[in-house]
Amino acid sequence: MSVADVSLRRAGEVPVERAPRFPRKPKGISGRSIAIIVFLTICAAFFCVPLYIIITTSFKTMEQVREGAIFSLPAPFTLDAWWSAWDTACSGIRCDGLKVGFWNSMAILFPSLILSIALSSVTGYALALWNVRWANTFLFVLFICAFVPFQIIMIPLIILSSGLKVYGTIWGIAIVHAVLAMPFLTLVFRNYYKGIPQEIMSAAMMDSGSFWRVFVEIILPMSGNILIVVLILQITSIWNDFLLGLTFGGLGTQPMSVVLANVVITTTGEAAYNENMAAALLTAIPPLFIYFVLGKFFVQGITAGAIKG
Amino acid sequence: MPRVQFEDIIKTYGRVTVLKNLDLEIDDGEFLVLLGPSGCGKTTLLNLLAGLLDVTAGRITIGERDVTDLDPKDRGLAMVFQSYALYPTKTVRGNLKFGLASQKIDGAEVDRRIAWAARMLQIEPLLDRKPAQLSGGQRQRVAIGRALVKKVGLFLFDEPLSNLDAKLRTEMRLEIKKLHDELKSTIVYVTHDQIEAMTMATKIAVMDGGVIQQFGTPDEIYSRPRNLFVAGFIGSPAMNLRAGKITNGGGTVTAALDGVTLDLGRYGFASQPADGQPIVVGLRPEHFGAPGQALADAAGTFSLPVQYTEKTGGDATGYLKFGDGLIAARIDPEQIGRFRQGDTVDVSFPQGKVHVFDAVSGARL
Ligand SMILES: Nc1ncnc2c1ncn2[C@@H]1O[C@H](COP(=O)(O)OP(=O)(O)O)[C@@H](O)[C@H]1O
Ligand SMILES: [Mg+2]
Fold this sequence. Notes:
- The structure holds 2 protein chains of 2 kinds.
- Chain A has 2 domains: 31-78, no CATH class; 100-303, MetI-like fold.
- Chain A contains 14 helices and no strands.
- Chain A has helices at 3-10, 31-58, 62-67, 80-87, 99-129, 135-146, 150-163, 170-194, 198-207, 211-219, 224-240, 243-248, 256-265, 273-303.
- The two termini of chain A are 51 Å apart.
- Chain B folds into 2 domains: 4-232, 3-Layer(aba) Sandwich (Rossmann fold); 240-358, CATH 2.40.50.140.
- In chain B, the strands form 4 sheets. A 6-stranded mixed beta sheet of chain B has the order 6-7-8-3-9-10, with helices on both faces.
- Classes of the chains: A mainly alpha, B alpha+beta.
- Chains A and B meet through helix 9 and helix 10 of A and loops of B.
- The structure holds adenosine-5'-diphosphate and magnesium ion.
């Protein structure tokens, strides 16, 4: 065996010395896979056709929209509808476009993300890895809470938040988002941390024994996958939320989704379809962006046993 | 440095009692091995000492200190886990450093200790790697290093070698033994592997069913097993255990088993056995004389047909048909080739090596 062979071996590879005597034929396309491809194509068309119409319409002028050929390509191609949706579209009596809603949504998103993830990860960590008294009872309560629909507690929450003088403010919406997400996120984190080998936690108890130090130095760095999953879930659900923004948002503090709805509803004269389509797309961009950037990790996170049980 | 003492330890999980009224004393500098079959409570006992579990009742002292209610980090000990339990996101250096997390020492001393442990375990080139980039043996060394940097007098090991292959295991066995000699610290080491226990321990505590069956040096455990459990557990191939009866009359004591009479005239009975008392006789395979050779001090001679033979390189065992079972006898591997199935072999057994146990209580007579 040559030196090169030996070093290959060490890397876990075996050098190929001759062609195989019994090569296997690659499999052809079977009837079954044709059926699957047809089915998937129909499914894709179900989503793609409306998307195609939305995208093309948003780049058209109102003259072309009025012609009524909804499948035609934009001619002339224009970004006017996008600009007016962003900057000047009217929602109610204000004509500032979607940008106000966009910045409101951002201002809601970040505090509630930080708040909900910080609280639920620490709670999940405590419940999973420390001896917490009544932990099982607490878990049961969380489990129940995670399945209470928002509509049921909406009115009490409004009364509560106006009592706390946060009703109608950006902070009010952010806090309510964080609180409502807490039970579910805590369960997610708790289940993930339950999967951390017992001996690692034992070692950490012997080495440090400090609740916060073990969390920050050992557990948090091991939480990459689940943080990505939770981040994506939270960003999409907060950004796409409508009901909570509608009921808790005051004038000028409404999130983008609510502003979008108002823009679409508010029509003076004819319906500006191109502007409405552009507005809808504008609103959808941030979650899409997150999926594209973090999507790869999302799948990894799920397959790493992140969302289980 | 510490002397470890368990006093009347009871541990229950819900309604299941895992350790019953256990007493154990470990002297300073001892290499104590807790040996026993899987599920007998070894890990539980070790975790109680480490403070990772709470005792249900009882007292644990280390040196003069009652540590029963102390946190693990305050007990002045270090532990090496079976799965190594390295922190996956930290480098080797980070792992060693976190081993010192609860100690208030300055950065220069931390670096000094890491360098010392790394040199001792020959992991210096690995310091900046992550655990995932290490082999099993290297991870094991890092895990030991994380315990070493603490510079404590008491080390706990929970089956640290059971995830390694046979060759590495032998190497690491020697190395842990060497560490013990150099550091002069006390070690409590859990294993179910009797070879590990016999080769490393200065004292062995054989456990079964949450009870310490025998506590003594490896030699004592091997040559004077206190009861049937220890007799059957220690030794490979296992000791032959055969039921029989005592005949005590006319000034001679003999044991009758399945047609063979063993002379027990020189056996050191703790108290004179009664005539007809049911017993179990223990004969280690390695103590049989060579086939066909009559020993001068033989307790008795077996003339038995060969059932099958087994060779393991430098050693060989013959399994001989005796009554409705088999008796294992070590036979010189040079000679064993001569025997075919059904051949009759004459082997005698020396007087001084017989073990006799009470058939009812299982205790050594
Ligand atoms: N958390 C637990 N709950 C209930 N029973 C347990 C628990 N941990 C261990 N046991 C039981 O205690 C006994 C001893 O376990 P252990 O100390 O791990 O054994 P060993 O290390 O000797 O193999 C076993 O029978 C096991 O089933
Ligand atoms: Mg164990």
